[in-house]
Amino acid sequence: MATSLLQRIVQESAEMGSAELRVARFVSANPGEVIHMSMARLSQECDVSDPTIMRFCRRFGFQGYQDFKLHLAQSLVPSAPFAYEQIVPGDSIQNVVRKTARNSLNAIQRLLEDLVPQQVEAGAKLLHSASWVGIYASGISEITAIDAEHKFQRLGMRCAALIGRKKQWLHAETARPNEVTLIFSQSGHTKQMVDVAIASRAGGARVLSVTAADSPLANVSDGLIAVLPYDRTELMTPLASRLNHHLVVNMLVTAIAMTSGSEFPDQLPALDSWQTEKI
Question: What GO molecular functions are on record for this protein (predicted)?
């Protein structure tokens, strides 16, 4: 996977002298501002000379400052394949903010390019036709299940987020025809979720999974909305990894609302006033 210019700047900072290091730190913390700065302004901000800025640009293979700024601007555009910028000890708060936002943008961009709209459409139709929907997840995906329950209930659907092994088994083993089991799993390799899918189908329910394609869970599901997982999710789950599953929930809600003839399919009905009393 290609290394972005910002990543290269961070990686090579340890080899820089004090003057170039000030430039590297300023650029990595404020890339969006730098692309609109003149060389004189950047020199002033970093308290270095113009020749130092030129040496810094040439270190990365650019002939001049304008060429450097052009590539810096391109590195700020979300790109596919997805590149996750790890936050490391010693990062400034500016880098924490930038990397968190950029990783989120990249995650959304990747979903836009990889998601199959027909899978979302088929999933929405399956959920809309169900007499009841059981929403299953474990670990970090439990947040997505609760979010889906809240939004589906606002549409008037009969559903429940089932959290915890005992509750999940109780419902999966008593699943019936006309019900749908909706499962969220980042990797699709969690044995508990695979077992839930098998048990639900044995009772006649249909299983819709939002998970990785060609995973064990996908292979035992009736319907699939394939979302590529992050690398090494069995060890670490970046915070941005939740975003795509939450977006899929929003897509399903909107598609179901459209099927139901809603005038504003991308808006949920307001909660009762007693639930949202304001002061």
Answer: carbohydrate derivative binding; DNA binding; DNA-binding transcription factor activity
Count up the domains in the chain and report the number. Answer: 2
Q: Do residue 126 and residue 260 come from a single domain? A: yes
Distance CA 11, CA 3 (A): 10
* pLDDT given for residue 105 in this prediction: 83
pLDDT in tens, 221-244: 999 999 987 655 555 566 777 889
**CB neighbourhood size of 93 (10 A):** 8
The helix/strand/coil state of 190 is coil
Q: Do the strands 132-136 and 159-162 form a parallel or antiparallel pair, or are they unpaired? A: parallel
Residue 80 has what pLDDT? 46
Q: pLDDT digit string (tens) for 163-205?
A: 999 999 999 999 999 999 999 998 899 999 999 999 999 999 9
The single-letter DSSP state of residue 222 is S
Residue listed under structure tokens 């609760």: 146
Q: How far apart are CA 100 and CA 120, in angstroms?
A: 27
Q: At 238, is the secondary structure helix, strand, or coil?
A: coil
Tell me which residue of 135, 148, 120, 127 sits closest to 242, measured CA to CA: 148
Half-sphere exposure of 83 (CA within 13 A, CB side): 15
Q: What's phi and psi for 167, nearest 5 deg?
A: -65, -40
Task: Give the side-chain half-sphere CA count within 13 A for 178.
Answer: 3
What pLDDT shows up at residue 30?
87
Residue type, 43: S
In this structure, the answer to whether residues 166 and 220 fall within a common structural domain is yes
